[in-house]
Amino acid sequence: MAGSKRVCSSNQIIYYPQMAPVVITLVSDGTRCLLARQSFFPKGMYSALAGFCDIGESLEETVRREVAEEVGLEVERLHYSASQHWPFPNSSLMIACHATVKPGQTEIRLNLRELEAAAWFRHDEVAIALRRNNPYTQQQNGAFPFCLPPKFAIAHQLIKEWVEKPIRFTLPV
Ligand SMILES: NC(=O)c1ccc[n+]([C@@H]2O[C@H](COP(=O)([O-])OP(=O)(O)OC[C@H]3O[C@@H](n4cnc5c(N)ncnc54)[C@H](O)[C@@H]3O)[C@@H](O)[C@H]2O)c1
């Protein structure tokens, strides 16, 4: 039977589990993809942009707002990829999308209240990072290599999808 719930034994009120929708978007300019990091990420790790949906927003509106807020870019086309339940820190439904920026509009305006860094990465750089074993290990020169989220995270799958196959952008945002 579908549906989890708890019934309060004193007043019979039914409580259903709460889940927060989150969009995670891999922005591309056609040849490169935009990845960002927060200060608490493992050193060297970059990921796609994520953000909680606000009340009243469509997923398309959340993508457009989050990308504009975090890196100052306007997205033009949107393509749904996949979803994943994500239990950390509370229960979220991650909705993963690919998006493109308007041609020629690639200048990043970083929101330092939300992100530590963001940059455009070439296809070959991302492909190497996907293949890297022991990605979070410090190198002999003291630096941490550019690396990506672990395989179990939908962020990894979204980035892998971008590397492996051309995405058709069909939905205007
Ligand atoms: N599975 C993956 O691949 C993947 C990748 C990136 C992010 N995530 C998850 O996506 C979520 C959002 O990512 P983020 O980078 O914006 O996170 P974040 O932790 O930076 O949160 C951003 C803001 O959202 C607020 N917030 C927290 N819970 C909320 C809720 N339920 N509804 C509305 N706002 C809330 C926080 O107060 C914070 O100010 C996080 O839970 C993160 O763990 C998952």
From TrEMBL:
The cofactor(s) it depends on are:
Mg(2+); Mn(2+)
Give the Enzyme Commission number: 3.6.1.22
* Primary residence: mitochondrion
Matching entries from Pfam families are given as: NUDIX
SUPFAM superfamilies (UniProt xref): Nudix (SSF55811)
Q: Which PANTHER family match?
A: NAD(P)H PYROPHOSPHATASE NUDT13, MITOCHONDRIAL, NUCLEOSIDE DIPHOSPHATE-LINKED MOIETY X MOTIF 13
Q: Give the matching NCBIfam families.
A: PRK00241.1
Q: What is this protein called?
A: NAD(P)H pyrophosphatase NUDT13, mitochondrial
